[in-house]
Amino acid sequence: MPEGHTLHRLARDLDVAFGGRRVRTSSPQGRFAAEAAALDGAVLVQAESGGKHLFVEFVGDRFVHVHLGLIGKFDITAGTAPPAVGAVRLRIEHEDSYADLRGAITCDLVGRARRDQVIGELGPDPLRADADPDRAWDRIRRSDRALGDLLMDQKVLAGVGNVYRAEVLFRHRLDPRRPGRTLRRGQWVEVWEDLVCLLAEGVRTGRIDTVRPEHTPEAMGRPARKDDHGGEVYVYRRDGQRCFVCDSVVRTSDLKGRNLFWCPRCQPTFRSRATKGPSGP
DNA sequence: CCGGTATGGTGAG
DNA sequence: TCACCCTACCGGT
């Protein structure tokens, strides 16, 4: 379930469990064995996230750079660590708790320069108080690329993944295939502010919920969504089902190799002024 | 058991 | 644009 809120939450929880403490590190699976041995017994200074990247800092300007990719997990558990189960690439242990990293696309030991470079290449992250949405706007406003594509580009905007992309575009009635340059500034500001709220809520609850109060299962008398990520959503992976708002059928298509979901009536196809004709049909 | 799929990203062509 | 990487889970055989 790794979108930006997952990594932000993970950094916070790693801090609580291990921050400022001397920890044991190991690589039961073996693929991070040399690095884990080098860090073993060092003080874990802090953990931080930027977009979907996680940096776990150890004394001596040493950082474990983690990216969970599509299927990675970093589970923190209270109690004494049992023998590792499955492919644990990195285990961090303290007396009180342990954390197991599995399936990550990236797990590298890097220095501060590399950490700064990775963070520096990211677009603004709605979860960071110092984020500047104008940096993203400057890219979006001059781009011919589809809005759905731009929102997923971590150099434009950091932390938004396939679920938040689909949902925030639905919430603002925006066609995902509409070119970035056709967006008005006010619309972008609203999208950004909404992402700030949605991601913060995701950090708080640990799940992705995007439906407004009037569209919750309780409010509408419909069954709750039973899914692997647990949250209530409007269109993500709801293709073929009815839209809660307008009752039309939610659609899906492929955009740059990722599944895209939208409601054709709530997010009508955008037509530029030029193709509309001078005075209607 | 096997194949398909997944909230992501990289590097080759 | 495609092949590929990481792991777990789910459905159909």
UniProtKB/TrEMBL annotation:
Keywords tagged on the record: DNA damage, DNA repair, DNA-binding, Endonuclease, Glycosidase, Hydrolase, Lyase, Metal-binding, Multifunctional enzyme, Nuclease, Zinc, Zinc-finger
Q: Which reaction does it catalyse?
A: 2'-deoxyribonucleotide-(2'-deoxyribose 5'-phosphate)-2'-deoxyribonucleotide-DNA = a 3'-end 2'-deoxyribonucleotide-(2,3-dehydro-2,3-deoxyribose 5'-phosphate)-DNA + a 5'-end 5'-phospho-2'-deoxyribonucleoside-DNA + H(+)
GO molecular function, a single term = zinc ion binding
Task: Outline the extent of the FPG-type domain.
Answer: 234-268
- What InterPro entries does the entry give? FPG_cat, FPG_N, H2TH_FPG, Ribosomal_uS13-like_H2TH, Znf_DNA_glyclase/AP_lyase
Cofactor(s) demanded: Zn(2+)
CDD domains per UniProt: AcNei1_N (cd08970)
Q: Which Gene3D superfamilies match?
A: 1.10.8.50, MutM-like, N-terminal
- Identify the residues that the record assigns to the Formamidopyrimidine-DNA glycosylase catalytic domain, covering every copy: 2-99
Name of the protein described by the UniProt record: DNA-(apurinic or apyrimidinic site) lyase
**Organism of this sequence:** Marmoricola endophyticus
